[in-house]
Design brief:
The structure holds two protein chains of two kinds.
Chain A: H1 7-41, H2 64-74, H3 85-101, E1 111-112, E2 124-125, H4 135-156, H5 160-191, H6 196-206, H7 210-213, H8 215-228, H9 240-243, H10 253-278, H11 296-321, H12 329-365, H13 367-392, H14 411-416
Antiparallel strand pairs in A: 1-2
Chain B: H1 18-21, H2 24-39, E1 64-66, H3 81-85, E2 91-97, E3 105-113, H4 122-126, E4 132-134, E5 149-150, H5 152-162
Antiparallel strand pairs in B: 1-4, 2-3, 3-5
Classes of the chains: A mainly alpha, B alpha+beta.
């Protein structure tokens, strides 16, 4: 009996190892980047002391993640007496496992050229599960499971702040799943596939990123992705100032670390999805080409372009954190149900109409004009939709005090004193 | 006070214009502010390598010193006014008969517990002969409690260390400023 694993198994295991190692390192360093961004925006210098341990080399503070990690791992992992022990332990595991498993269907590059020396005769896609035809569904299913982690954590903590955090979180994440899905549906309609690498290839072969072809869908997806990742200005689930950390109030030590890593992975996932579905993935005009990968140069270039775009989106996430105040909960719900949902539907209808009538359009006005019209019409829809949403939505709340009341109730109490 | 009280002036909030309703000015304004601060000069002082600048050393309240007069003797006349004024009771003076004809007493021992001191500067204000002053030395550290009790010699050596950078304050009392 042959006990050695087959070649595809080995390749998959290597990819999983690289991906998990890369993601964990990235999460650690993104914490450092987040702290730097926070410091720079506040005119401070940020962490710049920790370098190589036991030496005086500082390296701009690049050793900080190691120190942060060691600190939080060595802290006491305290389990309060009043929690539901099973769920309390399960919550961080569920959320981290779901956040990591999402990446099985997310390509982290284009593909590698054939390596005959190792027996790889075809192009090797940079994707853990290349045969999965429902990549987008997988991503969305697992990101919904990650909500369970938040809910379980909030419920099992048996703490009112944790419970409120979990409650807010469930309402918010359920509400924003819908605009997220609508933004995504436009892309799926246009690309005709649920595979993320096919969606990237479609953008590369036409040279038109979906952010340009479907600006309204991009806007809806971007806002919903911020909300799904629970980043400011949609960070109500944890809202430190109101909820003492929300659903992870009662967690400490390594369990808290798992929650925090999962949060960063959510942001990374959101950045991946935004880049892959709307910003062309690994494609950059005149640099990466759009055909099959034949040389290592092209493979590395595409990987570099994808990584650079993702880093850019993550930096945008972090800059936004310090730019705008948090929404109030009713405003958050208004935005989801009364603004983003209709806009998403409008975008979906526009995309469907364009895709349906494209053959007739090409026959009537020719290839080039049809392509230009397919970009121009969505932009018109975008501006009309945005202005209509701005004028019609009840996003503004009347905060003026009520002045018709009689003497305030506290007045006689004041007189008695 | 009733909401209808004539003393209250109610200001009407301006209704949102189209630009505000589209969220654009907020969006651009917020991002522009953070982006500007992202690249603007930082105010952090990297302390051990880089010394913070003391605005006016003459009014800074740092480590104490005991001033010397022109002949190099301690100026203090052991009148106990500083010890009396001190709210933290950190000054301990032992007075004895002065060997010099121009004053009756002088401090045989003069100790300040820098760990108890709250650096309020009241000793400096109370002193009738400007013998005790606060310098602009701000990094005061030690490895033991004993080390942080400054005696007369130490306080005089602080004067020797700082007299060039920070002259004595009132000229009428023999100061050089």
């Amino acid at each position: 009996m042959n006990l050695l694993p087959s070649l595809p198994t080995i390749v998959a295991l290597v990819k999983i190892g690289l991906l998990i190692g890369g993601l964990m390192t990235a999460a650690a360093y993104l914490v450092l980047v987040e702290r730097w961004m926070a410091a720079w925006v506040q005119d401070r210098k940020g962490p710049n002391r920790v370098g190589i341990p036991l030496t005086k080399v500082r390296l701009f503070g690049l050793g900080q993640p190691l120190a942060d990690g060691l600190k939080i791992i060595l802290k006491e992992d305290f389990t309060p007496k009043h929690v539901d022990k099973v769920l309390y332990t399960a919550a961080p595991l569920v959320i981290l496992a779901a956040s990591l498993a999402i990446f099985a269907a997310i390509p982290f590059g284009s593909s590698l050229p054939p390596i005959p020396a190792l027996g790889l005769t075809g192009e090797e896609p940079l994707l853990v599960a290349p045969g999965l035809d429902v990549g987008v569904l997988w991503v969305f299913a697992l990101s919904s499971i990650a909500v369970y982690g938040v809910l379980l954590g909030g419920w099992a903590s048996n703490n009112k702040y944790g419970f409120l955090g979990g409650l807010r979180s469930s309402a918010q994440l359920v509400a924003y799943e819908i605009p997220l899905g609508l933004g995504l549906l436009g892309v799926v309609l246009a690309a005709g596939s649920l595979k993320l690498d096919t969606i990237m290839n479609a953008q590369a072969s036409t040279g038109v990123w979906y952010a340009f072809a479907q600006p309204l869908g991009f806007l809806v997806f971007l806002v919903a992705a911020f909300a799904e990742a629970a980043r400011l200005p949609f960070d109500l689930p944890e809202a430190e100032q109101e909820l003492v950390g929300g659903y992870h109030t009662e967690y400490s030590g390594i369990k808290l670390l798992l929650f925090l890593v999962a949060e960063f992975l959510h942001m990374v996932t959101a950045a991946f999805l935004i880049v892959i579905m709307f910003l062309g993935g690994w494609h950059l005009w005149g640099v990466t080409g759009s055909g099959p990968v034949e040389t290592w140069t092209v493979a590395l270039l595409r990987f570099g372009v994808l990584s650079a775009k993702i880093l850019g989106v993550i930096l945008f996430f972090m800059l936004v954190r310090w730019s705008w105040p948090r929404f109030r909960f009713d405003q958050l719900m208004n935005l989801a149900w009364k603004v983003m949902l209709p806009l998403g539907l409008v975008n979906l209808v526009a995309v469907a109409a364009i895709e349906e009538f494209r053959p007739q359009l090409v026959a009537a006005v020719g290839e080039g004009t049809a392509k230009a019209a397919a970009i121009a019409i969505p932009w018109v829809v975008f501006f009309v939709g945005w202005i209509a949403a701005g004028m019609l939505t009840p996003s503004g709340t009347d905060n003026t005090p009520i002045r018709t009341h009689g003497p305030l109730d506290i007045e006689h109490e004041l007189v008695e004193v | 006070m009733k909401p209808t009280d004539p003393a209250i002036t109610w200001l009407e909030e301006k209704p949102l214009g189209l630009a505000e309703r589209l969220y654009l000015p907020l969006f651009v304004g917020g991002l522009a502010t953070t982006a500007r601060h992202l690249v603007s000069p930082k105010v952090t002082v990297s302390y051990p390598e880089q010394r913070p600048t003391v605005g006016n050393p003459l009014i800074y309240r740092g480590v104490h010193r005991l001033n010397r007069d022109e002949e190099g003797r301690v100026k203090c006349v052991a009148c106990f006014l500083c010890a009396t004024a001190c709210p933290a009771h950190c000054i301990d003076i032992v007075a004895t008969e002065s060997p010099w004809p121009d004053r009756e007493k002088y401090p045989e021992s003069f100790q300040i517990d820098e760990l108890r001191c709250i650096f309020c500067g009241m000793c400096e204000e109370a002193c009738p002969v400007d013998a005790i002053e606060l310098t602009s030395l701000l990094d005061l550290t030690g490895k033991s409690r004993e080390e942080m009790i400054f005696d007369k010699e130490k306080l005089l050596s602080v004067y020797d260390m700082t007299k060039d950078a920070e002259p004595m304050k009132s000229a009428s009392l023999g100061g050089t400023l």
